[in-house]
Amino acid sequence: LLIGLLTAVISVSIGVIYGVMSAYLGGWKDSLMQRIFEIFISVPLLPVLIVMSAVFKPSIWVIILIMSIFYWVGPVKTVRSMGLQIKEETYIEASRALGASNARIIFKHMVPLLIPYAFASIERHVVVGSTAGAGDSAYGNDLCVCRVRDGQDTEPEAEDEVKKMEKILRVDNLKLYYYTSKGIVKAVDDISFSLKKGETLGLVGESGCGKTTTGFALLKMPTPPGKIVGGRIEVDGLDITPLSEGEMRKNVRWEKISMVFQGAMNTLTPVYTIGKQMMETLQEHRQMEREEARKRIEKYLNLVGLSGEVVKRYPHELSGGMKQRIAIATALFLEPRVIICDEPTTALDVIVQAQIINLLKDLKEKLDLSFIFITHDLATEAEVSDRIAVMYAGKIVEIGRNEEIYGEEGPCHPYTRNLLAATPRLHEKVSTLSFIPGAPPDLLEPPSGCRFHPRCSVAMEKCAKEEPPLIEIEEEHMVACWRCKR
Fold first, then answer.
1. Beta sheet of 238-239, edge-to-edge order
2. 114 pairs with which residues across the strands?
3. Residue 224: how many CB atoms within 10 A of its CB?
4. Residue 119 has pLDDT above 80, yes or no
5. Quick one: which of 214, 192, 218 has its CA closest to 204?
6. CB contact at 8 A, 68 and 11
7. Most confident by average pLDDT, 22-31, 39-48, 49-58
8. What is the C-alpha to C-alpha distance for residues 118 and 13, in angstroms, rounded to an integer?
9. How high is the pLDDT of residue 224?
10. Across residues 408-435, what is the average pLDDT?
11. Residues 344-361: what's their mean pLDDT?
């Protein structure tokens, strides 16, 4: 029983950690680790036993060593498969953005979720190991017979004009491409915009147009196999484009720019209390006493309308609205200058949505924050944003102040006009719902010229041949359309 228990603990620990590391690191590191794994499972046990018998004096520790070396491969495939799923969870991306190192994410946010599987593996290995220990003292014939390879086949309007002129964020010619087996997906393709101090810039467009990808690009966190291949991102006067991952994690993310993630209710790791998760972020970025850190956490929880008692609760004990407020508090408590809100009211009922929107507006005035507000909801955008940037197929096609987009004359670009026409109006009688025919283009092979021309009802011959530049047709109103002129 002792042989089986010790073998199980050692081999399962190695197998679980190896499988999780392979899944999380990905890329060439994952490929290399899988090749090593395949070599191990292909080595026959009997010749190794014979060699080990000749080299080492037979003992219980040698048996444990040999069994651990061979049994650790058991959980790897299944753990890796589970790890690949956990890796895509929002709370893993949030932990990385909050400044957690790869080791902390692996050991604190992924491995604990695999403990139930580890216990199951331990039970199996205790049985097998006990059988081996009961055999012949010179390693025992049962050891060869009982080898198991688990999972081998599984796979404010402005108060100060000078303040309003200060640009807290500037993006120039940003490009983020996904390098896939089918080709290059130009998800964000040569976009430029700026954000002023104390301003909210709305980012709107259909699904798949590059809004969320732009948000992740501003944090320098492209989802693999995405890469930032061009452009410049300047946050609070600092060009972050050439910075390393370590510099971004320690000095930029959550220090200068933070994010409330899409589906923010899923950004909390289920096995830790709220206080433990918020404390982890402070420990990564600030050298402060525990009591000082606790007071800061409570301050920002109170700021978003929650009591300090929330720190003792687990995520499953909270409502959707409470989780959303915690996500906002977490984005604020290191006092960054820019906050990216990616669909912050998604999956919330209309009453809670209104509360969250009002909360963001209050925080903007109290803390002098600048927001990028990503949403599909043009009505919500009109409520919270000072300027609107409209994206289509990885491009920004129009940027303007609220009154220029939503005013009597309306926007200039045909796509923006169609988006507004497709938005239901509460106080107007509508006999037929308006829609935009067709679908957004495949960004593996985007259309030539203006990317909207195949769906545009006013397209000209020139639109299909030449891409229109983003030009300023009036102060702070920029459009990329051949029909819109200065």
1. 183-196, 167-180, 226-235, 238-239
2. none
3. 10
4. no
5. 214
6. yes
7. 22-31
8. 8
9. 85
10. 81
11. 83
For 257, phi then psi, to 5°, come to: -145, 135
Assign 146 a pLDDT band (cuts: 50, 70, 90): very low
Peptide bond into 225 cis (omega under 30): yes
The token duo for 280 is: 């982890």
What are the Cα distances from residue 437, in Å, to 442, 454, 484?
Answer: 15, 9, 22
Give the β-pairing of 200-204 and 370-374: parallel
In the chain, the largest separation of any two C-alpha atoms, in whole Å, equals: 91
Cα separation, 463 vs 448, whole angstroms: 8
State the DSSP string of 86-117. Answer: HHTSHHHHHHHHTT--HHHIIIIIIGGGGHHH
C-alpha 475/C-alpha 486 separation (Å) is: 10
Residue with tokens 């060009």: 239
How many Å apart are CA 102 and CA 83, to the nearest integer? 14
- Is the model's pLDDT at 93 over the cut of 70? yes
The 3-state DSSP composition of the chain as helix, strand, coil percent (nearest 5) reads 50, 15, 35
Contact 323, 268 (CB under 8 A): yes
**Distance (Å, whole) CA 149 – CA 135:** 20
Which residues, at least 6 apart from 306, have a Cβ–Cβ distance to it below 8 Å?
Answer: 322, 325, 326, 329
Q: Which tokens go with 253?
A: 């993310």
Q: How many other C-beta atoms lie within 10 A of the C-beta of residue 446? A: 17
For residue 29, give Cα distances in angstroms to 8, 17, 99.
26, 14, 22
- Residue 179 CB coordination number (10 Å): 12
Nearest to 475 by CA among 395, 404, 386, 376: 404
152 DSSP 8-state letter: T
Which three-class secondary structure state does DSSP give residue 377?
A: coil
Report which of 78, 58, 42, 38 is spatially closest to residue 66, judged by C-alpha positions.
58
Indicate the length of the chain as a whole number: 486
Q: What is the mean pLDDT of the chain?
A: 81
Spatial neighbors of 148 by CB under 8 A, at least 6 apart, are 71, 74, 124, 128
E strands, 350-484, where? 370-374, 387-392, 395-401, 471-474, 477-479
Would you call 72 helix, strand, or coil by DSSP?
A: coil
pLDDT for 250 equals 87
Does residue 141 surpass a pLDDT of 60?
Answer: no
Pairing of β 395-401 and β 477-479 = antiparallel
Residue pair 327/363 in contact by the 8 Å Cβ criterion: no
